[in-house]
Amino acid sequence: MKKTHGIIGLLVIILLVLIGYAVFQSLNAQHKTATNSSTASGKTATVFFHGYGSSRNAEKSMAQYLVDQGYSNRRVNVTVKDNDQVEMGRRIQKEDKNPLILVQFDNNKNQDFTKTAAWVQTIMTNLKKQGIDQVNVVGHSMGNMAIAYYLMATADGKGDSFPVVKKQIDLAGTYNGLMSTEPESDSPLKDDGQPVNQSAYYKRLLPLREYYQKHQVQVLNIYGNSQGSGNNDTTVYNNSSKSLKYLVQSPSTYEEKLITGADGQHSKLHENKEVDAAMLAFLKK
């Protein structure tokens, strides 16, 4: 009889342990669900970079258009301080649809693009940690150099440290230099987009070809001609912008769009409804 009681007692203990374990697992699963409910994952963000001497104010009109059109429901300010620290206005949340990241460089006249690339790497690392797996990048003028040098710095890949760059939209790119500083910037182009006369500015960008060969990026190059036969936007010759074509190699893809008239002027491109519409269509396709 004692032996029977002992067996029954052992079975009761085993049953209680099993019930306790099941309750623990259930509570743990509920905790994980609650913890992750506000965390983004598998999202695509669009990251904007302004030009020389500018700020995120140059990005706001384009971002607002994307919100108004229902493409996104969230804008997030990111600031790179003068001391190189990166501050993010808020974390990416689960309910954020295609968040728009408006970057501001407080040191907005920095032309050490290696340093700029390091800033962008920090931004992208932070986004990756917050569940952003893919990014689109949009640059205006010198903001395109922030993108270009970031791409070159990450051409060989660094595992899962950064989001995958899916689409790139360039406005008023300065690839073969500026009208005011690079005499070669109005060089004729070969059929493949290569400048006949390449500035030192352009030659430093040639490693971009390797990046585009190793990745699949869809590139839209938008440039403006507000000067008619002058073929420039008052700051950049069209041929300088169009020389991006030579850098973009298969399997990446390249297309371009010309904006004419007064609203094709350099600083007006980021306030241009035709540009907005082209950007939205490109992001959605």
Spatially, the strands of the biggest sheet line up as: 3-2-4-1-5-6-7-8
* CATH architectural grouping: 3-Layer(aba) Sandwich
Number of domains: 1
- SS class: alpha/beta
| The CATH homologous superfamily | Alpha/Beta hydrolase fold, catalytic domain
> What would the CATH topology be?
Rossmann fold
Determine the mean pLDDT: 90
How do you describe this structure in short?
Helix 3 (113-129) crosses helix 4 (143-153).
Task: Write a structural description.
By secondary structure, this protein is of the alpha/beta class. The chain has a single domain, classed as Alpha/Beta hydrolase fold, catalytic domain (Rossmann fold, 3-Layer(aba) Sandwich). It is built from nine helices and eight strands. It has helices at residues 2-36, 57-68, 113-129, 143-153, 200-203, 208-214, 238-242, 244-247, 273-284, and strands at residues 43-49, 75-80, 86-88, 100-105, 132-140, 164-171, 218-225, 253-260. It has an eight-stranded mixed sheet with strand order 3-2-4-1-5-6-7-8, with helices on both faces. Strand 5, helix 4 (143-153) and strand 6 form a beta-alpha-beta unit. The termini are far apart.
